[in-house]
Queue: 2 jobs
Job 1
Amino acid sequence: MPYNVTLIPGDGVGPELAEATRLVLDASGAKIDWEIQEAGLAVMETEGTPLPDRVLDSIRKNKVAIKGPITTPRGKGFRSVNVALRKALDLYVCLRPCKHFPGVRTRFEEVDLVIVRENTEDLYAGVEFDRGSDEAKQVIALAGGRIRDDAAISIKPISAFASERIVDFAFRYAIENDRRKITAVAKDNIMKATDGLFYRTAREVAKRYEGRVEYDEWLVDAMCMQLVQKPELYDVLVMPNLYGDILSDLCAGLVGGLGVAPGANIGDDLALFEAIHGSAPKYTGLNKVNPTALILSGVLMLRHLGERDAADRVESAVAAVIAEGKDVTYDMKPNRNDPTAVGTREMAQAIVAKMGAH
Ligand code: NAD
């Protein structure tokens, strides 16, 4: 039986990357029936919303989706479609594996980290009060002199519920993917209530997996230093939303940056796979940018579907093409103006050719 997967091409460079990814996944051996669902800038003009209900219905029906990036106009226009999707579908896990591929220029070689970031609460819950608002005044009064009168306020909710489910996901992911250690990251020496609750909950969850997966803890500031000095010592890192946002980009930087960093947003029974990078509008239609991040997001999707052999086949072919360094996009060449750089489509075709060769 083929898998039904929703494919959202996105906008900007999204459609080119989606086409390249589809080419590679179709050659992987996994049988996928694609349901194409347009969303983003052009859809806003024709349907009055960048994220029509049909897109959400399709993901709910198929349970698995992969998407190209979607532009969020700054200041005005519509809300981020990416954030709206995560909220509407309760995709509470943001999963970001960061693995070094030989041939990608980086400072470190043996990095193979996975960031598991809580996606729904923390300072990103969107509960903010402007300077001088009634709500800000009420909070300032409650704080009894600890907040200045002219402050704007953001609320940082960390719940036992959300902490439990994200840490439990990290342990299950570790077991399913043969990973050895979970490191919980927060800052409870300062935020004793919120980050303290996160750690206390994490320790409870860790007890359930004792003997199967190691568990340790780092404060987020010390973790940053560890990661830029000895990233090879760490394995799966789990943390609240804000720290996760920052550390995922830090770790993407450790392995070569945006062009090679895949991701997934996962809920209880739905999963949406996407690259970390955005729609790179200035390259739209130029067949120029690197398809690796979206193709590796497709590898995560294949693993999620249980298609381990197909996933390994694609990943090995991507690794081989990168290691050879010949059929790669401009950003992977030592000199960015290298005239031998190939386009998005040609790099995908080289990956397909490598799969055939093995
Ligand atoms: P961006 O990631 O689109 O691009 C920044 C720069 O990184 C590009 O100019 C390019 O030089 C490089 N780059 C990005 N992807 C690349 C690739 N695959 N290959 C080679 N080089 C690549 O970031 P931005 O310019 O800040 O954002 C553009 C738009 O994308 C914004 O509207 C933003 O809101 C949106 N965005 C969407 C998502 C998403 O859909 N998940 C994520 C991030 C940003």
Job 2
Amino acid sequence: MFVSSTYSKKELFSNLEPDLVIFHSNELVTMNTKYGAPRIGEDMAELAIINDGAVAVKDDRIIFIGPTDELISKFEFGKIPTKIDATNKLVTPGFVDPHTHIIFDGTRENELSMKLEGKTYLEILKLGGGILKTVRETRKAPLEKLVENGKKILDRMMSYGTTTLETKSGYGLTTESEIKQLKAIEILNDKHPLDIVPTFLGAHAIPPEYKDKTDKYVKLIISDMIPKIAKEGLAEFCDVFCEEGIFTIKQTHKILKTAIRYGLKPQIHIDEIVDTNGALLASKIKAIQTGHLLKSNDEGLKAMAEAGVIATLLPGTPFCLMLDQYAPARKMIELGIPIALATDLNPNCWTESMQIVIALACYHMKLSPAEALTASTINSACAIQKEDEIGSIEIGKKADLLVFDVPNHQFLPYHFGVNLVSKVIKNGKIVVDNRLST
Ligand code: NIG
Ligand code: FE
């Protein structure tokens, strides 16, 4: 939407009549960006809450935010077509899940017994399991099957409160099948109410046909995959799994330099299992966001803080890998690194629920409920560079809103493992109505 610089958004939207309002919210968490976007340090805990709060929506936009009595005196309340009474309820911006892998075929439930026997993630991969098993199955799947699988996941994500997500290719590892995955994302983005930011992750594993010839595979990525994908406009970001035994720092740098030249934004999976100095590389190339960071060294973390690289923490993954260690979130906040949270949904760590991720972040990484909510909304919007449109409840932004059947934000990690969402509003429309939730 065009917003003239001579008018404030408030003036522009003030004469419109709402078609939907939410009122009497016990806590309306606005996440007002005057505290910064992304929020860092102490500001991560600042939610900009309005008590007895109200929001008004016209079409897909937020046109009013304030106390309920102001809403009632401003508009002809009786004439508003859709009114949601949020008495004793929490209202927040829609969750933004900035790191997922939803396009795949086949499942890996059998790997739990291997993990219970003590096999590590990389050992399972070496045995031809893990990512490589999913690659075998995803290569065989027709496009329609990938779309069908993806739709089921998106429906579940939406019912748990995600309104925008990022998702990646990475289970094809040939030019053709990486493009097939990205086309599935494009189709889903067109058809499904959720908004999806697509990422090319051809550098997710070494395909079996390139075993011991990783440099050759890197060459294929650089000279064939990236140019074709950029030309077709199939991805916004390029990601690499930079890890010992997967792609080296040097290879990662090479891939991402090429991606940047082709107009793709850089992000990296770093320091998940071994510290390969990924955090330093992320700062050097000014990655928008980085995933995992369990093992990153202090020098790298300080460089990330200086460069403003967002750390997207994925506590579901160490949980599913049964690790004792989680990313050092408290240290990152102290250093001033902006933190986002994501599900990392993939066949190893399969959850659609940002509510579960918030609980894991609080119980295992010691985030406060307020910090975890910031990391799941405004900061995760920044991780995909969509903070001008989503991530907070502000006039002129997209009406992506959640109504929870709980009285305050501290309930989100407290009452865990169930769906606390009562209503999801996406682009100004009610897309989920869980009347009987909790
Ligand atoms: O972020 N670590 C690399 N990639 C994914 C997992 C993919 C898979 O195991 O299928 C992740 O955890
Ligand atoms: Fe991932």
